[in-house]
Amino acid sequence: MPSVSLTIWTGKRCRVLDEIECAHHSIGGSGRGRRFATLQVNYAYAMLLSWQFQAFCRDLYTECAGQMVASMGNANLRRYLHASLVRDRKLDRGNPNPGNIGSDFSRFGLVLWDDLSKCHPRTSSRKRHLEDLNEWRNAIAHDDFSQTTVGGALHLQRVTTWRNACEKLAISIDETMFDHLRQLNGVDPW
What we know:
It is built from seven helices and no strands.
């Protein structure tokens, strides 16, 4: 059973991404060829993907924090521990890059990327795609392509590759956190 966060990701968040992909197709068609008008749509798609994935990661983290403290009997202690877990999250102010995601989820007592790699053999590739997405996201957001390794025009195929990686990572992170929280608390967290 997926978390509420994953359900929102696969529902509402993916529908938003589908809308911009449909906009891309309506502007430039779905076939190959030079479509200069779609570059800005591709930039918007990359930014939106980064935003939606960051929101998923924050939502899941908050849900995990709630589940981690749910079994505590003292309500004041529950509120204090929950507030401590969500305070100063890197995902509240930084990009959804592997470092920020790993740092935040490490508060639950796991090394997220190591655990993901053990269970999901394609994690390394997906992590590289996430790093690439973040590099492009920063270049687009700051209109500075000079300090990055991004090159050439951004094409829809690259953004859809990133999206696929984010979709698979969302499922993997959800499963890993389910197993980890179940091991810690002795009950299924969702």
